[in-house]
Amino acid sequence: MAQDREAWQEFARLQRQYRTEQGLSQERLADKVAYSESAVGHVERLMRKPTEHYTREIEKALGLNGQLMELVPLIHGTMGPKWFREWPRVEALAHTIRTWEPMLIPGLLQTESYARQVFRGRPGVTAEEVENAVRFRMHRQAVLSRPRPPMYSALIDESVLRRPVGGRELMREHLAKLLEVLNPPYLTVRIVPLSAGLTTGCLGAFEVATLRDCGPDHAYLESAEEGRVTNRAQTVQALIVRWEALSSMAYPVDKSRDLIHEVMKSYG
């Protein structure tokens, strides 16, 4: 609870700082967004928690690029497991993200319905935990719709397309959505075909992020129970080599798009 309050206080401080640096009063900032002057003031006086929609409006008005948005899940207590919390911050600072996924559509590309099915598969999970996890996953996807999004390059095993998570209709809708968001060179998806056989990627999913400020590369590795974020150079380099090996087996972007469309039609 204290951590939520601290994040809210930091949000209020940053909003006030960015607002005053641009010579804006609360009233003039409110004129730029779909909120009243009192709503802006309530956030800065810790009388009202900022929602995701409010934060998007404020960031757009102030020309920000995620500085406030990354605090919203922490304010509302939806940051996910403790071991995962560092990774969304890495995503927010990333220039390039390379992803390999052998089992599921990558989290940043999942629809809300698909994500809900994924989280429901965890043994013993409650409905509230599922909805919190879905909200956080949808929040994370905002990183790809920023004015300066990271270059996102995903490699996905063909079996992922053919696994009907949530049923045929959901998969058809999801693959259609996937085709809509593809935007080379900023967002690409390439499929590693089943004909590649046993690959170095069968051991598990991972992501590698290169940061904008030339800080150390970071990696996120998944396991059945939890994941791990690391900037240990030896580990990150080994994963980059593995990603490049998988990349050499993947179909080109156009052929991958055709395969996604083909599988989408097979779902009806």
Structural domain tally: 2
Head-to-tail CA distance between termini: 47 Å
Mean pLDDT: 89
By secondary-structure content and strand pairing, the structural class works out as: alpha/beta
Strand content: 5-15%
What top-tier CATH class of the largest domain fits best?
A: Alpha Beta
* Beta strand count: 6
What's the helix count? 12
CATH architecture of the largest domain: 2-Layer Sandwich
Global outline = globular
Radius of gyration: 20 Å
Low-confidence segments: none
Helix percent band: 40-55%
Description:
- The chain has 268 residues and is of the alpha/beta class.
- The protein has two domains: 2-75, lambda repressor-like DNA-binding domains (434 Repressor (Amino-terminal Domain)), CATH 1.10.260; 82-266, Endonuclease, Chain A, CATH 3.30.870.
- The chain is built from twelve helices and six strands.
- Helix 7 (112-120) packs across helix 8 and helix 10 packs antiparallel against helix 12.
- The radius of gyration is 20 Å and the shape is globular.
- The relative contact order is 0.12.
